[in-house]
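Retro notes - structure team

What went well: the batch runner handled both jobs without manual restarts.
What didn't: labels got mixed up in the shared folder, which is why I'm recording both outputs here explicitly, each with its sequence directly above its tokens.

Job 1
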Amino acid sequence: MKYLISFINLKRVVLTLFISAIVSIQGCSSTPATRKHEIEVSHELDPPKVIVEANVGIYFEPQISSYIHKQAFSDDIAAIHVGHESASLFSDAVPLAFKKAQVIDKMPPYDIEKTELDGIIEPRLDYVNWRTGFQSADDYFHVEYTFILYTSDGVPLSIWRIRGEGKYLQDQMTDAAQKFVTGFSTAPETERFRKYLASKMVGNLKFNTDHIDVKAEIIDENTLGLELIASGILPVKVSVSNNTGHQVMGRGYDARLIYSNNRRIPPAFPLAVISATEYLAALGASDPAVAAAFFTPLAVIPIMSGQSSDQQDVRKNQVKYFEEARLKEVTLANGDTIQGKLYFTLPEDINELENADLSIWFIDPSVANGKRKVVNISGINYKKLTPEEMKVKAKEMQKRLEEMESADIDSKTEDEFE
């Protein structure tokens, strides 16, 4: 019953969404309205004290640079184009820290064998939560970036995470960019990459990836009451066993889902997984038939434009779950096995998917070199839902949450009598 409190809060939020659809002055609509929210991010950054003497490429995965963060408010969806703004910001920020830098649109070893660059930097959004309506001083509302640093062959050497600070999202984004510019030459996380840039040398691998057993399968789970697959999320359970005789570093950050003529996508960060399910919840909120079934005295509570404390608590619990569940960077001794999950958000143009591979890097930490292994993902039978099917899923989700809360109430009652 570890997460049952989040189920109760989630139900309250969804009920609020449903009721707000009823009391809305504009009336109910068949689908949620998506409203774009513009953010203006300052690119005015202080130069670093030390410029790294190297020519680096800046690579943005298409799914990251086009990422739109969505959050449900009442029966609307707020859409913040934070991916595009992030790509624009770091296209300007990264060159300040180096002798030369340029944006590249191809990445070894997927698209090309090797670049003529000294190294490659991939900025990734790893966390973003937007604050609207009534403001509150809450660390939960912030932005965090992960920078994956590669050799010219595309071997990932280092990971550097930076959290942006400030009152508003745009301030936090600028702060993260400034920390990258001024901190790159001294950050402990970038030391291995900086040594590589200076020498252009990596050691020979001591292990053979044929002796690393990797299994990947789709799991049909509705964790915390969220409809993942129905929302276009593929949850992949990954098991890795090291039988090489050497230490091996496995890296979930560098994994890619490869499909349809070598198209690929990186894992989604936890809040991106959650925000992908927001549409389904708001869809239920805008359905009069669903709302009528849950009309309660709660309707007398004023509906505010911002997030309720219940909704914030729910999302915090959800983020915590997905953060703990996802496959992270880990060093495996010989004979060790690890399991974790990767969550991939499928692009809008994918209507069906029956076959895909998982590409995952394995690094020899002693020589700063590695090799990727590609395995087939079993159990894929994805079909994008029609609008009518999505409404059915929204109703099923509500029924499941009702049952969860009822079970929790019964459990609490039993505890009180004991």
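Job 2
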Amino acid sequence: MIETSIEKALEHSKKKKKLKEVPTSPVEKISVMKKLFKKDKNIQDVIEFYEMLKKVEGLRRERIGEFRKNVNLKISYKGEEINMDLENLRTNADMLEKFISTIKQLLLT
């Protein structure tokens, strides 16, 4: 969903003549999104989260807690420990909902 939103936002920016062309590689797309929406903190947070998700397979991670009790995934990312527990997942879900709403509003203009 994040990838689709990024793609549509870039296509919309091209139509509005803010971009000459939509980049083809995911790294370039992320870079352009960071530049285009540098004033929107929510979009910046989602892009940072998206970058982490893309790299999570290769990161050092550790499962903590039992099934249904204090389930936690500890991830080492950019030199810090990130705890993905249920509370963090709720926060991220809210952040993603705001991001998708923002992109929808952008596409409607």
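One thing worth noting from job 2: The first strand starts at residue 61 and ends at 66.
We'll revisit the folder naming next retro.
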